[in-house]
Amino acid sequence: MQSPKLKYAYFPGCVAQGACGELHMSTVSLAQALDIELIELKKASCCGSGTFKEDSQLLEDTVNARNIALAEALNLPLLTHCSTCQGVIGHVDERLKSAQNQQPEYLKKVNNLLQEEGCLPYRGKTDVKHLLYALVQDYSLEAIQQKVSKKLTGLKCAAFYGCYLLRGQKSVSEKNIFYPEAMEDIFRAVGATPIYYEGRTKCCGWPLSSYATTESFQMAGMHIQEAIAAGADCIVTPCPLCHLNLDSRQPEISQVIGQQLELPILHLPQLIALAMGINPQALGLNKHVVSTNPVLSKV
């Protein structure tokens, strides 16, 4: 018996429709190749990237309760493809679900603010899930493997999970947040070789970049150097903010650390979609600062 078609309320976030437009392109292309239906939440707003709570926890909760309510209205799980969005919205969802029993007055306050703006109330009736875990848990590694038309044999991929995906929520999908395997399992499913290195679960340095730029670049440079030393052909990340720091700023990072790097940084859906035989330009692989040609020549 054939499994029902997967369908999600797609939260693209800000960066994937701006500085990392190729992430949106590749997510949509991959979903089409896997026959996953995405209903884009076009009325959704920025999650705040963790900055709203610096001013007000209520602000962060209300803004993201509204985002979740948009998915609830469709009776669909909310799908992110950004570790930061996942960490922020997922944590708000956890907090508000807990508030239903433990702090009902606080949840009422959130919903009253939404009502004042003519927005739907938060009901706590859906889930917030990152694309990585939607693929591994809902779609399955076996089904991905069956869809591969161009095995990425010989390509050595280093995962960069980042902070929020592993530590942004109380409950995460990894058995061990210090030794995650979901991305490496996907690499194996598409025929690539996982590369392990120390920095794969650490911060990319993006949050520091606006006020401690040198330290941010040193942090990112250390991770890239470790991946190169371990034999990686590329780094693959599930977070566009990590991608910005590791890819678009890599020339500046090279200057700060005094070493030429030139390691391609791929978005997770780009890598998987390559194995589906999708044209690299349709995935935006020509839009990166660090050339992805070394990856394409290998596959």
TrEMBL record:
<keyword id="KW-0560">Oxidoreductase</keyword>
<dbReference type="InterPro" id="IPR051278">
    <property type="entry name" value="HdrB/HdrD_reductase"/>
</dbReference>
<dbReference type="Pfam" id="PF02754">
    <property type="entry name" value="CCG"/>
</dbReference>
<feature type="domain" description="Cysteine-rich">
    <location>
        <begin position="158"/>
        <end position="247"/>
    </location>
</feature>
<dbReference type="GO" id="GO:0016491">
    <property type="term" value="F:oxidoreductase activity"/>
</dbReference>
<dbReference type="InterPro" id="IPR004017">
    <property type="entry name" value="Cys_rich_dom"/>
</dbReference>
<feature type="domain" description="Cysteine-rich">
    <location>
        <begin position="8"/>
        <end position="89"/>
    </location>
</feature>
<protein>
    <submittedName>
        <fullName>Putative succinate dehydrogenase cytochrome b subunit</fullName>
    </submittedName>
</protein>
